[in-house]
Amino acid sequence: MDGVIPFELGIPQRIFGRARDAAGRRLYEVVTCSVRPPGPVRTNADFAVLVENGPEALATADTVVVPASYELGPVFEEGRLTDELAAALAHVRPGTRLVSICTGGYVLAAAGYLDGRPATTHWAHAEHFQELFPSVRVDADVLFIDDGDVLTSAGVAAGIDLCLHVVRRDHGAAVVNEVARSTVVPPHRDGGQAQYIQRPVPEPQLATTTTARAWALGRLHEPIQLRDMAEQESMSVRTFTRRFREEVGVSPGQWLTRQRVERVRHLLETSDLSVDQIAREAGFGTAQSLRAHLQAALGVTPTAYRRTFREVGAGH
């Protein structure tokens, strides 16, 4: 759409376009289309993009990604689709997976795809979004929301997080880790992580908690106490805890649990270790503790999670 933000327009091509199987074959075909016949589309930058596909390309899509635009017009102001946009979306087949990046969620909401469903958008627009679409359950405090066949993300870089999440959901940890490595971004930021941290960048003269996090990641299989992490930065526990939350957005304990859950996911997907062995490797100690944390984080058992990704791997 006119007014599209080039950064966010490029995210799907960069993330999905990099996903390959073990033999090097592309796992996605990425096609960009306009809401009108092929031609130039204005961006919010000082250049236009030449789009070679019109809206009929939407009829071929298994997943449709709507990036943000600064020229949504009636969609943003009144919560209704333009005739042009409605005609374009009419090409989308029933059952197609729908994904929005930032204010692209306004398009999905105006089309009725988000009615009665949880969704997010950029924190700066969340209140307006909720007022315009009262039937949508808006959560302004998360990076993205996966509601099965409809997924929405917060602003800008959260679109990267959501697209990586989709790749992981489709093809598992090994594929998404390689995509993230080639794109030089973290392979996973939890969707429930806070969108907006009041002071995300520490003052230059203050020490950070980077060393402690790296130290902990190398010892997830060991018991790790808060005072042990604080000692890595030569800080008191109180100062370290405050600084950690300022930089990461969650407490050290919450962060450590997330890293251990990620370790569990990786081992369930890539190894034949038993649940007891994985529990020890990830630092949960017992299989019972592992199951409880995985259930709380993902809503599944270790066996069900492993079976899902083994089936994904077998299908490709």
Gap between N and C termini: 34 Å
Number of strands: 8
Rg for CA atoms: 21 Å
Report on the biggest sheet: 4 strands, mixed
**Strand/helix succession:** HEEEHHEHEHEEEHHHHHHHHH
Order the strands across the largest sheet as they lie in space. Answer: 3-4-8-7
Question: Can you tell me the overall shape?
Answer: globular
Question: Can you tag this structure with a few keywords?
Answer:
316 residues; alpha/beta; 4-stranded mixed sheet; two-stranded antiparallel ribbon; 14 helices; 8 strands; globular
Describe this structure in words.
The structure is a single chain. The protein is of the alpha/beta class and 316 residues long. The chain is built from 14 helices and 8 strands. The strands form 3 sheets. It has a 4-stranded mixed β-sheet with strand order 3-4-8-7. It has a two-stranded antiparallel ribbon with strand order 1-2. A hairpin with a 5-residue loop joins strand 1 (39-42) and strand 2. Helix 9 packs across helix 10. The longest helix is centred in the last third of the chain and has 19 residues, at 252-270. The protein is globular.
Tell me briefly what this model is.
This protein is an alpha/beta fold and 316 residues long. It has helices at residues 6-16, 74-77, 83-89, 105-110, 126-132, 158-171, 173-183, 210-217, 226-232, 237-248, 252-270, 275-282, 287-298, 302-314; strands spanning 39-42, 48-51, 63-66, 97-100, 118-119, 137-138, 144-146, 150-153.
Describe the SSE topology:
Elements: H1 6-16, E1 39-42, E2 48-51, E3 63-66, H2 74-77, H3 83-89, E4 97-100, H4 105-110, E5 118-119, H5 126-132, E6 137-138, E7 144-146, E8 150-153, H6 158-171, H7 173-183, H8 210-217, H9 226-232, H10 237-248, H11 252-270, H12 275-282, H13 287-298, H14 302-314
Parallel strand pairs: 3-4, 4-8, 5-6
Antiparallel strand pairs: 1-2, 7-8
